[in-house]
Amino acid sequence: MTSNLHTALTGISGILVTPYDNAGEVDPRRQRPIVDKAIAAGVHILVANGNTSEFYALTVEEAETMVGASADHVGGRVPLLAGVGRGVRDACRLARTSRAAGASALMIHQPPDPFSSPRGLIDYVRAIADAAEGLPIVLYLRNDAIGIKAIRELCELPAVVGVKWATPNPLKLAEAIAATDPDIVWVGGLAEVWAPAFYAVGARGFTSGLINVWPERSVAIHSALEAGDYRKANSLIAGMKAFEEIRAEELNGTNVTGVKAALAGIGHDCGATRPPSAWPLTPSQHAALQAFITSNEIRF
C-alpha cells in the first residue's frame, strides 16, 4: 500500500451520492461539483459505489458507469475507493472495471446473503482480490458476528490494507485491532457521530455522507479528533447531529434520502432515491432538515 493511500484512509472517507435525472436515470454530471467541493474542503479520500451511493439500488452497469465517472471527476487529486459487492461474479466484474477506471483501492461490501458463512466470506474476498490483480482492498464490515478468528483471517489476506468498521461495538473493534497486523488501518464506518468512540479504541478516520452537503464540518471534526481534542470534536458533532438523526429514521431508510433532500435544499438537486429507500422526507423530517440547513447557513 502506498503511503498516500494509507494516510488518506486515516482521514475522511467521503461516500459520494449517485445523482439521478428527472427520469430516475443515473446522471453522473451532477456529481462533479460535489467532488470538487469536497476536495477543496480537504476531504482525504472519496468513495464511489458505497451505501450512500445507493449501491444496492444500482444495476451492475450503472455501478460501472459511476465508478468511471467518479474517477474522472476526482482526476487523481485524492485516492478513489471503489465499492464492489453482491454475488461473487458481479463483485469480480466490478473489481476489474474499477481497476481499469483507475480506482486506488477497492472497498468490498460485506455480503447481505442470509447464508453467508465466515469461511465463505474469506473465499469471497480472495476471489475478488484475484480479479483485482493486486489492487489494495478495504473490507467494509457491517456484521461482527463473523467472529474475531474470521476477521483476523480476512486481514491476513495479502491485498487487505484496511477495514471500515460499521458495527456499533467499540469493544469488539478494540479486540479486532489487537488481534490483527498493526499495519491494518481501522476506519470508523459509522460516520461522525460514532467517530470519537472508535478513535478512543484505536480507529483512525471515519466515513461520511455529510461531505456531500457540508464537507467543511466533517474536516473540522477530523482535525479535532486528530489533535485529541474530544471536547471540540463532540461540540462540532452536536452541531450536525440533527442531520444524522434524520438519516437514521425509518430503520435507516432515510439515510440517503436525508443527503439528497439536503442537496436539493441547498441548491444542488441530485434527484430522488430509489425504493426501498424512503422518498420523499415526511413533512416533519423536511422541517427538521430545513431548520438544520438554515441554522448552519449551509449553501452549495
UniProtKB/TrEMBL annotation:
Domain of life: Bacteria
Keyword NADP part of the UniProt annotation: no
SUPFAM superfamilies for the chain: Aldolase (SSF51569)
Entry keywords, A to Z: Lyase
CDD domains: DHDPS-like
InterPro entries: Aldolase_TIM, DapA-like
Residues the record marks as active site: 140 (proton donor/acceptor), 164 (schiff-base intermediate with substrate)
Keyword Lyase: yes
Binding positions (pyruvate): 52
Signal peptide positions (record): none
GO MF annotation terms: 4-hydroxy-tetrahydrodipicolinate synthase activity
Similarity remark: Belongs to the DapA family.
The protein's name: 4-hydroxy-tetrahydrodipicolinate synthase
